[in-house]
Design goal:
By secondary structure, the chain is mostly helical. It is built from 1 helix and no strands. The chain has one helix at 2-114. The longest helix has 113 residues, at 2-114.
Length: 121
């Protein structure tokens, strides 16, 4: 008779253990669902924040492009003005050099015409 009691006790103990494991499994499932909900919420919030940040970066980049374009225009305008001034300056030098060359020719001509010719006789 003792052998029949022992399996009964073991079965009850095993049943209690299985019930406890089943209960813990249910609790774990609930916790896993809650954790998944938190993860999903965090993921959604992260994407939302990343999109906002991305929009800010794109706006800043547009402003920077605009600033660069304005600076580029200013530099090109200044360079064009400098080139025009340089060409005008070079032209003035060229005209002065032509005038000096012309004066030298005229002086040489005057000097040659005003000198008495020396004829050895």
């Amino acid at each position: 008779m003792q052998t029949t009691k022992k399996p009964n006790i073991e079965l009850k103990r095993l049943e209690k253990l299985l019930n406890k494991l089943l209960e813990q499994t249910e609790i774990t499932k609930i916790e896993a669902r809650k954790l998944n909900e938190k993860i999903e919420g965090t993921r959604n919030w992260t994407w939302f924040e990343l999109e906002k940040f991305s929009d800010k970066i794109l706006d800043e980049m547009a402003l920077l492009r605009n600033d660069v374009a304005n600076i580029k225009d200013e530099i090109i305008t200044e360079l064009k003005t400098s080139r025009e001034e340089f060409v005008a300056h070079q032209g003035a030098h060229f005209r002065k050099q032509e005038t000096l060359d012309d004066h030298e020719k005229r002086i040489a001509k005057l000097e040659n015409s005003s000198l008495p010719s020396v004829n050895p006789t």
